[in-house]
Write a structure and sequence with these properties.
Blueprint: H1 2-30, H2 36-41, E1 50-52, E2 70-76, E3 81-86, E4 93-94, E5 99-100, H3 104-111, E6 115-120, E7 128-129, E8 131-133, E9 153-160, E10 181-188, E11 197-204, E12 215-222, E13 228-230, E14 237-239, E15 242-248, E16 256-257, H4 264-267, H5 281-286, E17 288-289, E18 293-298, H6 323-329, E19 345-348, E20 353-356, E21 358-360, E22 375-377, E23 392-398, E24 403-410, E25 420-427, E26 439-446, E27 449-458, E28 464-467, E29 473-477, H7 481-499, E30 519-530, E31 533-536, H8 541-549, E32 555-566, H9 571-575, H10 579-585, E33 594-598, E34 603-607, E35 615-619
Parallel strand pairs: 8-12, 21-27
Antiparallel strand pairs: 1-35, 2-3, 3-6, 4-5, 6-7, 9-10, 10-11, 11-12, 13-14, 15-18, 16-17, 18-19, 19-20, 22-23, 23-24, 24-27, 25-26, 28-29, 29-30, 30-31, 30-32, 33-34, 34-35
Amino acid sequence: MLLPLVISSVAAGLLSVTSYFPYKNHLKLHGDSLDAASLASNHLLNLEHCHPVSTRLPNEPAGPVEPSFCEDVVLDRRTSMAYLSCDPTRLTWDARAGIYEDGGDKLAPEQGTPGIWAWDTSRRSLARKLYISTPPPEYPLQAPSDLLETFHPLGIAVTASNPYFVEEVDEGAEPRPSPPANLVVVANKPYADKPGVVDIFVHDLDKVGGKDHATLRWIKRVEGQELAGTHVDSDMPFKVDPFRIAIFAEQYSQPIDRDYPEPQHVRDNPDILAGFKHDDVASKAARTIRVPSFFVTSLPDRSKEPSTHELSERSSLFSAVWQPVASYLLPQYSLTSDPITSKLFIHHSSINKTLSVRLDGSDPDQWQGFPPLLQAWDGGGKAAGSNSSAIALFIPTLTADSAKVQEWEQHWVRGIAGGIRDHRVLQKATTPDGRANNVLQLYKTYTPSFVNFFAIEHETPVRALVVDEHGRSWTAGNPNTRSVEKWIASQRDERRRRLGLPTSSPALSSSKRPPRPAAKIDQTTFVFRHFGSVVAHPWDKEKLKQKRKKGVFLRKEFHTFNVFKSPAETKAEIEGRSEEEMRKRGWLPTVPTGLAVDIHKKLLYVTGAYEERGFAVCALPADWIEA
């Protein structure tokens, strides 16, 4: 009788110990153990360097002439063009949270419609929304009917219109000219009950207005079977619901005419010079576009779930204190996200097919409410001895008590042949007399494999990520996860109330609403070490090139520095400040969801998907951060 009691007591003690520390670490990670006063007093770091692009004050409503509720931002170093994916209907059409509600039409006159904004960062002009144009009837690919009606952009990526303008030249050779156009690749979620799509656009920079050209021309959509990911080792399909995109500047599509076909009356006019074309390499490249392959992460597969308009937040993380412990003990209580969010996919534009990328070891950990982010890095290019446009991938991970950014490096563990696959593609064509002339072609694709050598611990879950040209990561997040979800729910209820939709709570005064959560931005830099001595900083490309040629494995030593912090504030506190104080204080998006960095101009661009003011520009403090 005594033995079972002793065994039960020991088991209970061990269970308590093994549950206590993960639970305490969970509270620390997600901020529930932080003192609210400390978030207000100690979270005001270098904020005066951050300013909204909008000239409005925080208590002034947004309008349709400025970007608002911007999910992601990307910067093209070659042209200094920044592109933003913004959706003013975010609070009622939220792919991250799985909430899709009516109300978009009512919202449109107030804050504009979803779209892509472009900003020439080399000038002081403001961002401008791009008008989406569709091809004429004679164009071989026709735009889907929903493009102008239900466009809900998420992740965004940019590259030059042709690989000629991307290719690195050898030392001493003439540099490539600036691209005449950019390809803008956008993850789009047009329907609630179907997986999203990837739309590809051309932004012409050599047409009317130059970099201020206000038209974004639709070229192609990747959807359906082209986006249904297949595992590299089997034919098991995954329904990919695109969230974040990273360009893999290799294995391009066949050339596509950059310009839409000219109208017949123009082509038939003998007085025009439309037929005159330069024949040099740059001019030929400027007349065509080639779509690169790209990596893509996925939202959870909700296609089997009924479309819901319920008011409960699917994104609410750990709504009860027992869930972190219960998730360790019983699988049904685990808050690990859908398995598809832990996988990485690559779309091969050469064959219009998507495959899962082999991440040797294990897939990254993802949890509910934190969709997978992704950044690719070219290792410094030829100058640093790199031979790939994606020598490394950076993917944030999240468990109950640990937040990291994993660096996955391209590696040939299984040999080059392990990533090469044959694909038979039917090319449909016709002869000049109209007869079918189809050709079955054999294509070989290479899907790179990656190994995780390094992981950087973070104090808070990562909500936004960017990697600069030296391979240093910049991350943004919020110290208190639960306060973020409460604040978003409050913003969503306020929006519902204004649209006449049902709400989950009564109207609250400004002093009783959930406070605006604190936010923080970190930079993680590193040095290479070998045999205990410093080999190189990330910008010492010549040293790195020599080591890589010798095949030396370089151990990295990471150092994370907090660059910017904003405090937790109630709406009443914000409204109580003078205009002068508000302008001097500086501003960051409440929930940062997108980052872009220009280390040459020492600027950081920050977007927030749940923020009316769109995005902020932060000057990197010269005496505070390694730039």
